[in-house]
Amino acid sequence: xxxxxxxxxxxxxxxxxxxxxxxxxxxxxxxxxxxxxxxxxxxxxxxxxxxxxxxxxxxxxxxxxxxxxxxxxxxxxxxxxxxxxxxxxxxxxxxxxxxxxxxxxxxxxxxxxxxxxxxxxxxxxxxxxxxxxxxxxxxxxxxxxxxxxxxxxxxxxxxxxxxxxxxxxxxxxxxxxxxxxxxxxxxxxxxxxxxxxxxxxxxxxxxxxxxxxxxxxxxxxxxxxxxxxxxxxxxxxxxxxxxxxxxxxxxxxxxxxxxxxxxxxxxxxxxxxxxxxxxxxxxxxxxxxxxxxxxxxxxxxxxxxxxxxxxxxxxxxxxxxxxxxxxxxxxxxxxxxxxxxxxxxxxxxxxxxxxxxxxxxxxxxxxxxxxxxxxxxxxxxxxxxxxxxxxxxxxxxxxxxxxxxxxxxxxxxxxxxxxxxxx
Length: 423
Fold this sequence. Notes:
With about 425 residues, the protein is of the alpha+beta class. It has one domain (about 45-420): Outer membrane efflux proteins (OEP). It has helices at about 1-5, 15-35, 35-40, 50-60, 60-80, 115-180, 185-220, 245-250, 255-275, 315-380, 385-420; strands at about 45-50, 90-95, 100-110, 230, 280-290, 300-305. A hairpin with a 7-residue loop joins β5 (about 280-290) and β6. The longest helix is centred in the middle third of the chain and has 67 residues, at about 115-180. About 25% of the residues are buried.
């Protein structure tokens, strides 16, 4: 056995440091190619402006894609409505004179039944196609409101971070004054409590901002894990349409175009039902083959049949009643759109006035008062209560400006939705 072991080949093992380097290489390769790294790359924050979000909405919003798919399906229904009835073939054997017999029946809509059915299906397809524009309009409003919510959460979080920074500076000033004997310990404790509360507010608003980003991502057809950031500010218009020009917006509104298409469907259904009262012609061809009785012969026959729709009058009555109801609904829709346009315009103008007052008058005064109060507190000319009051006024004013901006953007979104297009 010793001899056998002497002649066995020697196995060379790599040194320990080489094995360690190889293991480190494999671990790094796994980390780079792991799903976790890919997920980290997918969840990178993406800044998106409101115009860019609206462009994505036009082509990729889930509701728009669903409406476009339904429009494609509705167009296919036109060919289905124009199908000819399938022929009916009967074959059999008999024990009488003929060995084999057969009948072929073909229905022929010769009096316009097929044409009117295709016209009704085409009218319905036009309704669904008009619904795509309505879906885009609704999707634009939903994305606008979601984007403004995200922008509002971002603005509030930034204000909270600024408030936290100002609280930290006041806390540092109070500590310096306490060390110098110019402020009691109570002021330091109070400012430390306010600083902790401000940091907690920042954390809470960051969570709300992430939730708003997820809602916007879903509306844009993106994964809910995609981190979005609102870039820019909500839109505004310098000169909204005057009241006299609102009627033109109503006539060209996507909802009005869809309602007009619905009126076309109602008319087409009435024509279809009236045409369906005409007879449906059918041709039947028959044959008896291989007769047993002499002399051997084949017997052929041709017959004409028709359906007599004597009892179809209620279908026409129902279609005419539906057409009358559609016209009443159309008139009511026009009145509702006119009222919505006037109301949305007035609301937008009101939000514009509130925004201008906050930005041009209230905010500059509140910022100046807060800066003067902080300087006076550092020099000992103002107590902590007055300083905190000025800081709170500035914080509330900044929040009011952000909310006024968001309200103006929402009002414009609702105004554009009522107008049926971007202003």
